[in-house]
Amino acid sequence: MDTAPTDRSYLRLPERVLSPVRSLSARIGVAFVLVAVVVIAVYTGRGGYRDADGSPLTLLDSIYYTTVTMTTTGYGDITPVSPSARFVNVVLITPLRILFLILLVGTTLEVLASQGRERMRLARWRKNMHKHVVVVGYGTKGRSAVATLVGSGVDRDHILVIDPSEPATHEAQAAGFASIVGDASRRDVLERAHVEDAEKIIVTANRDDTAVLVTLTARQLNADAHIIVAVREQENVHLLRQSGANNVVTSSESIGRMLAIASVNPSLADVLDDLLSPGEGLEVAQRAVDPDEVGRSPKWCSDQVIAVQRGGRSYRFYDDEVAALQKGDTLVVVRDSDRGSGSGPLRDYA
Predict the structure, then answer these.
(1) Residue 36: which pLDDT band, with cuts at 50, 70 and 90?
(2) Which end is more exposed in the chain, N or C (fewer Cβ atoms within 10 Å of the end residue's Cβ)?
(3) CA-CA-CA-CA torsion sign (51, 52, 53, 59)
(4) Is the same domain home to 220 and 291?
(5) How many domains does the chain have?
(6) At what angle do helices 59-70 and 20-44 cross, to 10 degrees?
(7) Are residues 245 and 289 in the same domain?
(8) Is position 119 within any domain?
(9) Residue 348 has pLDDT above 70, yes or no
(10) Can you give the residue range of the structural domain that contains 201?
């Protein structure tokens, strides 16, 4: 993530794009409906209207009167003369004429209405946004993290992306995520993202010093959030943990290990890639211990247990401390992704 300061940042919510052809067709349809209603009203009460030549109104005259009236041309050759006709003009035709004019200047009004809707959406988003996930950086790592979150069951409405790049935030917005253009190391940008109410914060900065600044600022704003940070160099892991990160992933070394595994044992690399790809094949998931599993060894569970979480600590399945499962334990298992019901996917402990 670029560390160049930005003078302004702003929030973008996912757009619900309506096809221009569909929008235009809808407007034309409404206009025809309005005209048809007025034509019916005029033709039904044609006895209360007077033509300039004194002849009774025909259907064509009713259509003609409607068009010149709705467009406010008003030639005056056909006029309402009876009280009932004038009443219909006041209570029905005049309001419909106003609606018709709104359609004619709809482009300008749509811009104003869109701005109002956007303000309402922003207000509703701010009101409902809590326990969400903030992803800092929407590069390759950020996009992969977001894709994994969505594949693990996290609602798109509860994911917010921060990136200083306009194209990146546009891409996130097009993918259905709220996004903020800005430098996440700045306190005001994180406050705009409601970091103080976030449940998880994922930092995928391109530079380790940026990751440290983002982590420090985020931890100051939210002492309880689970912060996961990607760093490039192993020597910076300790610094990130001191800054408040709960989990630190060394991206360069992880990639190096995957490359080495693929070169030595390609089939093992395929399995690891399968585990890291949500929604297909095998998946790593988390679930609560079942009542009938209490007192039993993790090796005898229905799923392949690889770790047990107890009392805020994580144990390997073969550790003596978890030789017998207890009520309240949380199991980290490997299972078929098609069976992903249980107590929750990977996101529950990410």
Answers:
(1) very high
(2) C
(3) negative
(4) no
(5) 3
(6) 130
(7) no
(8) no
(9) no
(10) 130-255
